[in-house]
């Protein structure tokens, strides 16, 4: 697939591509990334070994700009079995110089938290697609430490559930710096800082009505100790551990919460949802009440949009209890953001106020908003209409009058679009006629070659033939540079007679196709069989005449010398 992408996308007149390592002889496995890289077995090992060795897999070059090659470089990166991003040659060299400088000055790029992140990570190999303008494109593989990444350069990762699946990661080193920065401490001792506010929001989301009704892991942990959940269990949640790996920091943040949803035990080692606010039963009335305060939003950018960014965006409006991103599955099994979501507000009045706003934008993207219930009705109606169209098409194929219906639904040929070419030389073919008419801006649909130097040309568009004849001088056109042919337009009865024959011809060919499709035909059919044993015809097991023990002449005579 990667080879096909390169061949189809690149401009062969300006660019070239050389594969330094042949592609695998069988498709790469579709298993998860950890399983693919963990063992290094099978077809994936075809690329793992060059990655570890730092070899070049693909050279792609030519006269072009980085922006011209970026789209299909990213497409190739998406097809590769490991995460990738595209970058310019200059950016790659700048990173290399920075790494060499740190090595010369004996600067350790890893902090304590960085080492923790590396130790807990399964895969640390990443690679870049890079380009040197005017010379060579390279796919370069190397080991990057986490500190080199920023939120702007990371690939957007998908997060569908609160239980840490495919969420955008925040480096522990950055989280630690935020904890130790004096500016993060609140001026008022009871007011949470930025990090503490994020911790409160994340923990309370885990214990919210939305999450507890679908999070089996957390519900199981709450059922063992009167609802208390140890901090060591809470730190297993990826999004929470990305904010802080210190349980005491999380406890101190929850002490500043003003919602009254959580409580802490005396030893400050466990937390639970307060018993006075039990999780509501998932009844039809409860689900309908949630739907009545849920808004459907469309128009978000499909690339680079994360759940954290969306939660931060909706924080500027009235309280939003839940934001649910909608995803689609790619051919390789990965998930992609659709650019749509549902946002559930605390009250129906708050949802109405958001819906009444004249214009709502997200980073200059205008958002389309409507009630989630109305959107679901539209989708249901679209599904029913699509289902009905398929049923009608299926019944048309099976209906004995389906031929007449299809004939009636066929669009009529445009009038004033038929040309007649006469006095054609013998060496003229369809391509030469199309080439000659192209000089008169003629959009040729079909060329019907008739014997005795006559051809009929059907153009696309009403009165298209009249426009061509008006441009021709002396009703004559040049074909193959030296040959001349007379040109005229079919009008009146001559045009109607020709188009009627053409329609009859198309209908006849359609009937023939349908007949062959519904009935067995072709050469031989089923017939009496091919002979041999049983009841398939032939000699039915009897001895052939002329064979040993048989009578008569031989079945096959050989030439005697």
From TrEMBL:
Residues 516-545 have a biased composition (Basic residues). The keyword tRNA processing does not apply. The keyword Ribonucleoprotein applies. Pfam families: La (PF05383), Ribosomal_L16 (PF00252), RRM_3 (PF08777). GO terms for biological process: mitochondrial translation; RNA processing. Residues 393-411 have a biased composition (Basic and acidic residues). GO terms for cellular component: mitochondrial large ribosomal subunit; nucleus. Residues 189-281 form the HTH La-type RNA-binding domain. InterPro entries: La_HTH, La_xRRM, Lupus_La, Nucleotide-bd_a/b_plait_sf, RBD_domain_sf, Ribosomal_uL16, Ribosomal_uL16_bact-type, Ribosomal_uL16_dom. Residues 162-191, 383-422, 506-561 are annotated as: Disordered. GO terms for molecular function: rRNA binding; structural constituent of ribosome. Residues 293-374 form the RRM domain. It comes from the Eukaryota. Keywords: Ribonucleoprotein, Ribosomal protein, RNA-binding. Coiled coil: none annotated. Residues 412-531 form the XRRM domain. Belongs to the universal ribosomal protein uL16 family. PANTHER family: 50S/60S RIBOSOMAL PROTEIN L16, LARGE RIBOSOMAL SUBUNIT PROTEIN UL16M. This is Large ribosomal subunit protein uL16m. It comes from Moina brachiata. The gene is EOG090X0CQA.
């Amino acid at each position: 697939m990667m080879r096909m992408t390169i061949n189809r996308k690149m401009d062969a007149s300006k660019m070239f591509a050389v594969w330094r390592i042949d592609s695998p002889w069988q498709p790469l496995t579709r298993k998860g990334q950890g399983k693919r890289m963990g063992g290094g077995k099978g077809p994936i090992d075809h690329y793992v070994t060059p990655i570890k060795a730092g070899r070049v897999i693909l050279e792609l070059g030519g006269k072009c700009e980085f922006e011209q090659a970026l789209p299909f470089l990213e497409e190739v990166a998406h097809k590769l079995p490991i995460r990738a991003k595209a970058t310019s040659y200059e950016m790659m060299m700048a990173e290399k110089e920075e790494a060499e400088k740190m090595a010369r000055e004996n600067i350790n790029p890893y902090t304590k938290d960085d080492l923790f992140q590396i130790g807990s990570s399964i895969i640390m190999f990443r690679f870049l697609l890079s380009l040197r303008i005017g010379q060579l494109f390279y796919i370069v593989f190397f080991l990057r430490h986490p500190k080199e990444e920023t939120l702007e350069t990371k690939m957007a990762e998908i997060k569908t559930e609160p239980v840490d699946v495919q969420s955008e990661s925040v480096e522990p080193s950055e989280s630690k710096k935020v904890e130790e920065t004096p500016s993060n401490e609140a001026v008022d001792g009871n007011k949470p800082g930025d990090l503490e506010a994020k911790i409160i929001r994340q923990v309370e989301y885990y214990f919210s009505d939305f999450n507890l009704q679908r999070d089996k892991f957390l519900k199981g942990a709450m059922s063992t100790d009167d609802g208390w959940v140890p901090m060591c269990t809470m730190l297993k949640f990826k999004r929470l551990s990305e904010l802080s790996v210190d349980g005491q920091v999380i406890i101190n943040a929850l002490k500043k919460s003003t919602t009254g949803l959580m409580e802490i035990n005396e030893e400050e080692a466990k937390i639970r949802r307060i018993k006075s606010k039990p999780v509501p039963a998932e009844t039809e009335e409860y689900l309908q009440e949630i739907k009545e305060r849920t808004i459907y939003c469309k128009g978000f950018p499909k690339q680079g949009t994360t759940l954290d960014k969306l939660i931060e965006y909706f924080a500027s409006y009235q309280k939003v209890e839940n934001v649910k991103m909608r995803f689609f599955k790619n051919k390789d099994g990965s998930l992609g953001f659709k650019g749509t979501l549902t946002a559930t507000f605390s009250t129906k009045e708050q949802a109405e106020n958001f819906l009444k706003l004249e214009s709502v934008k997200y980073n200059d993207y205008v958002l389309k908003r409507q009630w989630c219930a109305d959107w679901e009705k539209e989708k249901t109606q679209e599904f029913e209409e699509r289902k009905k169209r398929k049923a009608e098409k299926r019944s048309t194929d099976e209906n004995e009058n389906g031929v007449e219906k299809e004939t009636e639904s066929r669009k009529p040929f445009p009038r004033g679009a038929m040309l007649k070419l006469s006095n054609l030389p013998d060496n003229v073919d369809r391509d030469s006629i199309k080439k000659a008419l192209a000089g008169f801006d003629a959009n040729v649909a079909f060329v019907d070659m008739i014997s005795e130097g006559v051809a009929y040309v059907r153009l696309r568009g009403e009165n298209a033939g009249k426009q061509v004849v008006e441009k021709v001088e002396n009703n004559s056109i040049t074909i193959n540079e030296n040959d001349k042919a007379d040109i005229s337009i079919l009008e009146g009865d001559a045009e109607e007679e020709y188009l009627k024959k053409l329609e009859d011809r198309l209908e006849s060919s359609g009937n023939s196709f349908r007949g062959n499709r519904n009935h067995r035909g072709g050469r031989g059919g089923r017939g009496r069989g091919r002979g041999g044993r049983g009841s398939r015809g032939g000699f039915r097991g009897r001895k052939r005449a002329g064979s040993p023990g048989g009578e008569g002449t031989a079945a096959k005579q050989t030439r005697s010398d």
